[in-house]
Design brief:
- The complex is a heterodimer of chains A (164) and B (419).
- By secondary structure, chain A is α/β, with parallel strands linked by helices.
- Chain A contains eight helices and seven strands, in the order E-H-H-H-E-H-E-H-E-H-E-E-E-H-H.
- In chain A, strands 4-3-2-1-5-6-7 form a seven-stranded mixed beta sheet.
- In chain A, a hairpin with a 4-residue loop joins strand 6 and strand 7.
- The radius of gyration of chain A is 15 Å and the shape is globular.
- The model of chain A has no long low-confidence stretch (mean pLDDT 94).
- By secondary structure, chain B is α/β, with parallel strands linked by helices.
- Chain B contains 15 helices and 17 strands.
- In chain B, the strands form five sheets. In chain B, strands 15-14-13-16-17 form a five-stranded parallel beta sheet, with helices on one face. Chain B has a four-stranded parallel beta sheet with strand order 3-2-4-5, covered by helices on one side. A four-stranded parallel beta sheet of chain B has the order 9-8-7-10.
- The longest helix of chain B has 17 residues.
- Chain B is globular, with a radius of gyration of 21 Å.
- The mean pLDDT of chain B is 97.
- Classes of the chains: A alpha/beta (164), B alpha/beta (419).
- The interface between A and B is large, with 39 and 50 residues.
- Bound molecules: iron/sulfur cluster.
- The site of iron/sulfur cluster (SF4) has 13 residues of chain B, from helix 10.
């Protein structure tokens, strides 16, 4: 179960908005977290709290293949991203770095900034706390969820290489 | 055998099973490319506890995004990768010599029809122009490809764009790509494999087809394919001795959606800030004043692009107050353009010629924009902050439009300048 306070973003939040190219020569967590979503909302990196959840519109993460995009969000403390749709590389990268991503087109219409929501990845539900409203989404395939639950592709592969 | 799409054929071969659209398969990778972000791949590779790469001859590494190194941090990450290459004895390492990855791999003869290629770069889709299935992946999954040679992939649905022409004089592949993105939208082909067919595609050179395939990712596509023909064969004949056979969708294969575009009246197109699908015809933005013009990148830094720009600029000067920056996409192109006198001619027109590489395309170096500045660029993304300040504006266009705009110091219609 993932629970957190909501930040809202619009459609087509691209990877340059999530972490601009000018910061990409430094892979450190501190650098990436400090500039997360800087060009979309300059206040975000300063005010985001651990466990906060992003709710966005269509095509979240479009643009480059930079894995630093989901990493920047993860290092900034983001607990999950819910969007109407995701660009494919961002979606893969998010799972691979252990950042939960949920496809739910209704979410951005229904959920408001500052709401507290509870996501159940197994059941495929988003519960808007205090609003008696539950949204549904298609749970992801089992192997993707196991990658997420191991904390990402690195620990997941480490376990598997170890077992061989 | 049931009729299969191109994507199903390649992924069936690579996974050793009958791969159907929508299924997730584990596929064996034929070629894996990384640039500077190999440093990030390396970190995950070590963190995974992997020790050896699965196949030394299938990993291509080079630097193109920040070459020569523009910061100490970039230099250090280059060094890290060089050390790994030396330890592992990787033969296909090109360092910073060759230029932009997506131009260099085809030039090396490493991209063959029907191959399954992945790269840690979203524009890896470019190789679809030669009939390969190629797509971008992240650094961590590349680490697992280095370790195992395998990757899970969903077999994409196919979308077919059939392009009717002929194109009017002065309209280029870039104008076609921009118009398609404008029509389809930046998520209009999400997760899909686009097949480009029709007389316009057939008439394009491989360079033109590479523009289409390259920009496919700007519609969200997983791959963008042009089927191989005699031009593909000729291009590869001097570059690769490996045998290959063209992989083409069966006539009865299940195509998700087929769309026809009649571009026989299409003029030059421009994408306005800050979205690639914000596309208008050049007339609508004519006269917008500019501070910088960039011609280059994996989209439009090829020989025919430099020639198109030079044709417009020849014997004339870029307007006062506008910076004209040109980066040939590869060393091969740089040499050819320099031997043909094209670079000298462009320099006489006032151009600053950069070393082969990504140049200012990704906003790392060699021509960043200040707040309030405006640039027209032959690259593929005009996102806010892409080329420097988030308060700068980027317009995307063809090399001819960019060159005409350099002459005027404002966005201009190349048909008026060259005729
Ligand atoms: S030229 Fe631009 S788009 Fe192409 S690989 Fe380099 S940075 Fe990416």
């Amino acid at each position: 179960m993932i629970e957190g306070r909501v930040w809202k973003f619009g459609d087509h939040i691209n990877t340059d908005l999530i972490i601009p190219g000018r910061y990409l020569d430094d892979y450190s967590a501190a650098n990436l977290a400090a500039h997360a979503l800087e060009d979309a909302d300059p206040q975000f990196a300063k005010q985001v709290r651990k466990g906060d959840i992003l709710v966005a519109g269509r095509n979240f993460g479009c643009g480059s293949s930079r894995e630093q995009a989901p990493l920047a969000l993860k290092y900034a403390g983001v607990g999950a991203v819910v969007a109407g749709s995701f660009a494919r590389i961002f979606f893969r990268n998010a799972i691979n770095v252990g950042l939960p991503v949920v496809v739910c087109p209704k979410a951005s219409q229904v959920i408001k900034p500052g709401d507290v929501i509870r996501i159940d990845l197994h059941q495929g539900t988003i519960d808007v706390v205090g609003a008696k409203q539950v949204l549904k989404f298609d749970p992801m395939p089992d192997f993707m969820r196991s990658i997420l639950e191991s904390g990402g592709l690195v620990p997941y592969t480490r376990e598997r290489l170890h077992q061989k | 055998m049931r009729p299969q799409t191109f994507a199903e054929k390649v992924l069936s071969r690579a996974s050793g099973k009958d791969a159907r659209t929508g299924e997730i398969v584990t596929a064996r990778i034929d070629l894996a490319m990384s640039h500077e972000n190999a440093a990030l791949v390396l970190q995950s590779f070590h963190d995974m506890g992997a020790t050896r790469v699965w196949d030394r001859d299938k990993i291509v590494l080079l630097f193109d995004h920040r070459v020569p190194a523009n910061t100490v941090k970039a230099a250090e990450s280059h060094k890290l990768v060089r050390e790994f290459v030396r330890q592992e004895g990787l033969p296909l390492f090109l360092d910073l010599r060759e230029g932009v990855c997506h131009q260099v791999l085809p030039e090396m003869g490493k991209v063959l029809p029907g191959k399954l290629i992945v790269g840690t770069d979203s524009h890896t889709v470019t190789y679809g122009a030669l009939g390969a299935f190629s797509t971008g992946i992240g650094a961590t999954e590349m680490a697992s490809v280095w370790a195992t040679g395998e990757l899970w992939l969903k077999v994409p649905e196919t979308k077919r764009f059939s392009i009717v022409g002929p194109l009017p004089e002065g309209t280029s592949a870039k104008d076609v790509a921009l118009r398609l993105i404008g029509d389809i939208g930046s998520d209009g082909a999400d997760y899909q494999c686009i097949e480009y067919v029709g007389e316009v595609v057939d008439a394009f050179s491989l360079a033109g087809r590479m523009v289409l395939s390259n920009m496919s990712v700007e519609m969200g596509a997983k791959a963008g394919i042009c089927f191989p023909d005699s031009k593909t064969r000729e291009f590869l004949s001097t570059r690769s001795s490996e045998p290959w056979t063209a992989v083409i969708s069966d006539a009865e294969a299940e195509i998700g959606e087929s769309m026809q575009f009649d571009f026989s009246n299409l003029g030059p197109q421009v994408a306005k800030p800050h979205a690639v699908d914000n596309v208008v015809s050049v007339e609508e933005v004519e006269g917008v004043p500019l501070d910088q013009v960039f011609i280059g990148s994996c989209t439009n830094g090829r020989m025919e692009d430099l020639l198109a720009a030079e044709r417009v600029l020849r014997g004339k000067k870029a307007a006062n107050g506008v910076r004209l920056i040109i980066a040939p996409a590869s060393r091969e192109i740089y040499i050819e353009a320099s031997e043909k006198g094209i670079l000298a001619s462009l320099a006489r027109s006032g151009a600053v010629i950069l070393n082969p590489g990504c140049g200012p395309c990704l906003g790392a170096h060699e021509g960043l924009l200040a707040a309030g500045e405006r640039c027209i660029s032959t690259t593929n993304r005009n996102f806010k902050g892409r080329m420097g300040s988030p308060k700068a504006e980027i317009y995307l266009a063809s090399p001819a439009t960019a060159a005409a705009s350099a002459l005027k110091g404002a966005i201009a219609d190349p048909r008026e300048v060259s005729s």
